[in-house]
Amino acid sequence: MTETVEGLSINLATVRQQWGFVEAVEGCLRHGIRAIAPWRDQIAAAGLDEAARIVREEGLQVTGLCRGGFFPAPDAAGRRAAIDDNRRAVDEAAALNADCLVLVVGGLPESSRDIAGARQMVTDGIAALLPHAAAAKVPLAIEPLHPMYAADRACVNTLSQALDICDVLDPQKTGALGVALDVYHCWWDPELEAQALRAGPERLLAHHICDWLVPTRDMLTDRGMMGDGVIDLPAIRRMVEAGGFSGPQEVEIFSAENWWKKPGDEVLATCVERFRTVC
User: Fold this and answer.
1) What gap in Å lies between CA 189 and CA 151, rounded to an integer?
2) Alpha-carbon distance 177 to 247, whole Å?
3) Residues 155, 118: contact at Cβ < 8 Å?
4) Can you tell me the distance from the alpha carbon of 196 to that of 160, in angstroms, rounded to the nearest whole number?
5) 200 in the Ramachandran plot: left (φ > 0), alpha (ψ -120 to 50) or beta?
6) Are 28 and 62 in contact, with CB atoms under 8 Å apart?
7) Helix/strand/coil (H/E/C) assignment for every residue in the chain
8) Chain segment 147-171, per-residue pLDDT in tens
9) Whole-angstrom distance, CA of residue 241 vs CA of residue 249
10) Whole-angstrom Cα distance, residue 279 to residue 186?
11) To bridge 180 with a disulfide, which of 54, 141, 167, 213 should be the other Cys (CB 3.0-4.6 Å)?
């Protein structure tokens, strides 16, 4: 039997071009990885009931389901539709017994320049979703994205902004609402250590890792393997652990011109090796 790699999770985006959900799980098990974070489209392709059966029978930890969010919309009907879809995402996360539902909150509505208004739509959307998520016992993890994505993917761009939303909507720190700290998006933030401590164990729900390449050829699909870029991964791990997070580090790599072109087993073997040597 392959030895389990403790403390490592694989976000299945890392091998999404090589494998579907079932093959990705089989690959992770071959490499001793027993924690995963699938995407909703991967679950839909496999079938939610089948995916949940595999997770249950293999005893896998699902460190997060990607993704909910995208709350801003140009009209009330669009915002209601987003909330309805997020409720479905919560139900899927519950079926998988996921540690959290990751929220990529969304950017500016079409034809808008009102980023403050978009951020208010995000807060309102999460507020509308929170009772359903709490009833399903699915924590919501706001993932701040790098500012380069503010217009189209996420108008919440720092851990501080995400935690401000948590303070408004869950001031008692019940564990129902927190943050996902992805090093790709947050490594540059001079307030990162202070904000990780501010978050504390109740709100630090996920820790995503990869690396920032210099140069980066594509802002979305040219993430680096850990150790190939400029992020001080051990330093951020210390910050996160000082904040009270003790869960797995979750490798999430979008790499259209490199890692997505390699065999899935090679990618996973490299993830394990780099996790052990540079993280």
Assistant:
1) 19
2) 16
3) yes
4) 9
5) left
6) no
7) CCCCCCCEEEEHHHHCCCCCHHHHHHHHHHCCCCEEECEHHHHHHHCHHHHHHHHHHHCCEECCEEEEECCCCCCHHHHHHHHHHHHHHHHHHHHCCCCCEEEECECCCCCCCCHHHHHHHHHHHHHHHHHHHHHHCCCEEECCCCHHHCCCCECCCCHHHHHHHHHHHCCCCCCCEEEEEEHHHHCCCCCHHHHHHHHHHHHEEEEEECECCCCCCCCCCECECCCCCCCCHHHHHHHHHHCCCCCCEEECCCECCCHHHCCHHHHHHHHHHHHHHHC
8) 999 999 999 999 999 999 999 999 9
9) 11
10) 16
11) 141
Block residue for tokens 């059966």? 53
Q: Please state, as a whole number, how many other Cβ atoms lie within 10 Å of the Cβ of residue 111.
A: 6
**pLDDT tens across 176-207, in order?**
999 999 999 999 999 999 999 999 999 999 99
Per-residue tokens: 123? 């807060």
